[in-house]
Amino acid sequence: MQEIIWMIQDSMDFAVLVFFAFFAVVILLSGIKIVPQAHRVVVERLGKFHRVLSPGVNFIFPVLDRPKATEWVFRKGLRKTSSLDMREQILDFPKQNIISRDNVVMEINAMLYFQISDPFKAIYEIANLPMALEKLTQTSLRSVMGEMELDEIFSKRSEINESLRSTLDEASDVWGVKVTRVEIQDVNPPESVQTAMQRQMEAERTRRAVVTEANGQRDAEVNRAEGKKRAIELEAEGMANARIRLAEAEAEALSKISEALTAHARSKDPTSYLVALKYLESLKEMSAGDKTKMVYLPYEASSILSSVGAMKELFKERP
Q1: Residue whose C-alpha is closest to residue 43's, from 109, 104, 124
Q2: Tens digit of pLDDT for each residue in 8-43?
Q3: CA distance 189 to 98
Q4: Residue 232 predicted with pLDDT over 60
Q5: Which terminus of the chain has a lower count of CB atoms within 10 Å, N or C?
Q6: Residue 309, CB-side half-sphere exposure with 13 Å CA sphere
Q7: 272 φ, ψ (degrees, to nearest 5)
Q8: 3-state secondary structure the chain
């Protein structure tokens, strides 16, 4: 009987030993934490921040250390996790109404790209990081676009994105968040405003077409006027050159006649010769035509005829 009691006692001792051994293994395994790549885990010791676990195998003190669980509320629901994703994340916000400076109500749809840079601040400085970023983006959109007119909102989309990114990045820095990009997807004004904008665009295209056509006609007229002006200048230049050459030819002829008359002993003045020559040409023109035409010789015709006689004598004496 005593042996049976000892056997039962030994078996209970063994079971206790097994239990404690199993408990020790469980405790030991609970102190091993494997963190995935691009993730971080915040660990608290007795309810107080202790350290941040990096990717890979990490060891914590069982019972005393515990990963900090976070509860983030998204539009799609609640998400509870103890691992923070350090990759760039996207928040797609619902459409919201914005009033521009010229009192146009429109719907704006935006997206926010952010990345957690400090896990400690993302956990302890803000209760619900995604919701805080969404509300901050919405208020910033109203603030920035409320100071702009509708045409500026459509034409300065990239400037608005950069202004929002800078504003949000500065405001969210205390939360350990880096805002990388802000993209405005859609800007939807009311249908009446869209119709008015379409008419305005058509009117602007028509105006540009008219201005372009008028400029083309004006340039064509200017080119034609320049061409006519150039042609007149060339014609005048040609006539001037012709007159200069004719005068040079007459001067040269007069010089030769003067030389010939000078060589002749009777006359040294070529003037009488030229006057006689012009007189004979005029007399020929006057005598042409109707036979009943009467020709009157001028009073000084005798001197001119004497010049003609001199010309005759000149040609007779030439060898």
Answers
A1: 124
A2: 565 666 666 776 777 767 777 778 888 999 899 999
A3: 9
A4: yes
A5: C
A6: 7
A7: -60, -35
A8: CHHHHHHHHHHHHHHHHHHHHHHHHHHHHHCEEEECCCEEEEEEECCEEEEEECCEEEECCCCCEEECCEEEEECCEEEEECEEECCCEEEECCCEEEECCCCCEEEEEEEEEEEECCHHHHHHCCCCHHHHHHHHHHHHHHHHHCCCCHHHHHHCHHHHHHHHHHHHHHHHHHHCEEEEEEEEEEEECCHHHHHHHHHHHHHHHHHHHHHHHHHHHHHHHHHHHHHHHHHHHHHHHHHHHHHHHHHHHHHHHHHHHHHHHHHCCCCCCCHHHHHHHHHHHHHHHHHCCCCCCCCCCCCCHHHHHHHHHHHHHHHHHCC
- In angstroms, the Cα distances linking 14 to 5, 8, 26, 27, 180 are 14, 10, 18, 20, 61
Which amino acid, 299?
Answer: Y
Domain borders along the chain are 2-30, 71-189, 191-263, 265-319
Fold of the domain built from segment(s) 71-189: Tetrahydropterin Synthase; Chain A (3.30.479)
Residue pair 274/257 in contact (Cβ under 8 Å)? The answer is yes
Q: How high is the pLDDT of residue 179?
A: 92
More confident residue, 176 or 27: 176
Task: Note the pLDDT tens digit of each residue in 76-116.
Answer: 666 777 888 899 988 887 888 888 888 888 888 888 999 99
Which is it for the CA torsion 230, 231, 236, 239, positive or negative?
positive
Give the amino acid at 242: A
- Dihedral Cα 116, 117, 121, 124, nearest 10 deg: 40
Asked if the model's pLDDT at residue 318 lies above 50, the reply is no
Give the model's pLDDT for residue 177. 92
